[in-house]
Amino acid sequence: MKFKNALGLALMVTSATCVNAELTTYPAPEGADLNNSFSVEVRQGDEWKKIDVYKVFVDEVVDAKHTVRPSSMAYFDFSGTVDIRVIPNNRHIENVKIRPLSYDIAHKLNGDTINFSLTQPRKLSIEVNGEIFDNLQLFTNAPDPDAPTAKELKKLRKDKNYIYFGPGMHKLDEELIVKSGQRVYVAGGAVIDGCIRIKDATDVKLSGRGMIYPKRKIGIFTDRSKNVSISGVFTTQCATGESDNVNIDNVKLMSYYGWGDGFNIFASNNVSFNDVYARTSDDCMTIYCTRKGYNGGCKHIRFENAILWADVAHPVMIGLHSETERNEVIEDAVFRNIDILDMKEKQIDYQGALAISCGDNTTVRDIHFEDIRVEDFRQGKLIDIRIFFNKKYCTAPGLAVEDIYFKNIFYNGNNSELSMIIGYDESRKVKGIHFDNLVINGVKISDDMPGKPQWYKTGDMARIFIGEHVEDVTFE
Q1: pLDDT surpasses 90 at 1
Q2: Taking phi first (over 0 means left), then psi (-120 to 50 degrees means alpha), and beta for anything else, what does residue 37 get?
Q3: Spacing of C-alpha 349 from chain mean position
């Protein structure tokens, strides 16, 4: 890999970061791929500061083929209150959406300029005239507690376990292997082409505000490691394999290529995600057992305060992969406070905003979904829970799905196809699916809801098909 002199990078940090009270902006480095679809400015006080807009890429499926589309991304840090103005260049504004809609961010139009304010950091999609590909992903962060001053960096450069990427373009000749006890900092204004792999390591920290945006697809991989913290950066995929005690916070990712998952978990335990964003060209978040050379089940997973957008496949996908003879278990996973902005999947086997596809003699149990807001997606279904035998990926059906809880689930839209809850046979059942406050287009679905004919299943009112080999489904 190629590194520049650390002292020189420290000077670049000082000159590249403009601090005005609690506002920090990060000019793009020379040679970065920028997009002129939007102009963005921010202020805290009287002076407007320009925010550079990067060209990133997303996926549109056209005629069953992946089609790469350019999009826009910008970021800055602040605390307090900031005013933001966004100008979509070379087009007249007819309408604007700022999503997630649950944030209810008010905006004003001044000609063809969008004006709004923020009082706390948000991750936003700004869409003009219904355009969801040539949109602006705007990621705002709290001030970075790990950012070193120039004086601190002089001392840190003497530490062989401190790896610093300052503002600028960085090309890794091969992936960076992070070892035990090391700390990697990616400064705002840094762009890394390559993968950072935390391999066979303990007590590692990766943080910053910069971009790990490789042409080689996976940006960050935690590989058979323990006690790992990853925070603040922007990347493509962020995977965790056969690891324990991994914490991922304020990570933003976008993928655009075939099978471009977002946050993957393979055979790992005690993995937590907080305040993350994923827009992906395959599943946004997955929990799998044995796969890709990683062995074991998964337990104690927390995925909270997230925004998900699957241009292909599922926002949340649990199960499917394992090795039949291992009889592995996925258990104790919590998904809480999540906004699902969109998904598009035509293949019925791979639909479901919240999906459990149980194969390979796997047992999936004790999964909790709470405070999930699903906006009107392009194509798919709201819920898909099945024990099935997908011969493309599995060598056997799953064993069991048990004790799945849905609380405060809200869907507003008209494009959901028929949701499904289906077991496999009398020895491979789905048991204990409980809905508490399922609301679809403002209608609360419950076993005693007004207007439900006595001869209807409650699932009929929610357009959920409850099939054979399913026991104990309740709607409260």
Answers
A1: no
A2: alpha
A3: 22
